[in-house]
Design a protein that fits this description.
The chain is mostly helical. Helices cover about 60% and strands about 5% of the residues. The chain folds into two domains: about 5-65, no CATH class; about 75-235, no CATH class. It is built from eight helices and four strands; from the N terminus they run ββββαααααααα. Strands 1-2 form a two-stranded antiparallel ribbon. Strands 3-4 form a two-stranded antiparallel sheet. The chain binds zinc ion. Zinc ion binds near residues 8, 32, 35 and 37. This is Protein ARV. Its main location: endoplasmic reticulum. InterPro entries: Arv1. Mediator of sterol homeostasis involved in sterol uptake, trafficking and distribution into membranes.
Length: about 240
Amino acid sequence: MAKPAFRCIECNEEASELHRDYSNGILKITICDSCKKPVDKYIEYDPVIILIDAILCKIQAFRHILFNTEINIHWKLCVFCLLCEAYWRWSKLQGSEQTSDPADIIRYTREWDFYGMFGLAALELAVFVCGVLVCLGLVQKLRGRTLDTRLLLKALLLSSYGKVLLIPAVIWEHDYSPLCLSLIKIFVLTSNTQAVRVILNCGRCLSLLAVMTGLSLETCVTLTFHKLQWHTQDFLQFQ
Ligand SMILES: [Zn+2]
């Protein structure tokens, strides 16, 4: 079985171990041969500190999570984030359809709308991820390098954790909700950009280009869906 390759969180150099366990019970953090700093200082830190640093988009925290831990919750997190997004869209849809007619209460039971919103959110995420992967795949091919698609996919899904903030945005809905939603979107995209930077060890320009490509394609899907929705509503009104 291949030995796990760790990475120095400061300079991205590969390391064979994060700490050395001496026989008398003393653990010593490994020092990086390249930058002479601890390979991964976060192994001593409390998870809350690591989470705060990840929220602050610190590249060291991203390297620790993606290279030096075995966190394997990206698919579960992805489904949870999609549920949060679907719930937000569904609640917005229900809110826009409110009328004074008591018979319209039945609309609140239209759970199919929720599944539709979930499907749309999943489609948008798939298009966004594919856009980023294709963009980076082409760039890496031009550079004569290979792209670790599996790791990049994991990084993109994990770094989209900010979508769970949609739930408090729905619960404490107020006049500033559109601003909150824009800030959540910017936070998720910033986090995605940092994740791409960490996986490819590239500059901000390339990671930003990849994320913007994904976002453009995602926006196209959203706009196409809304156009189809309007056309369907117009068609039904004329019936
Ligand atoms: Zn180093």
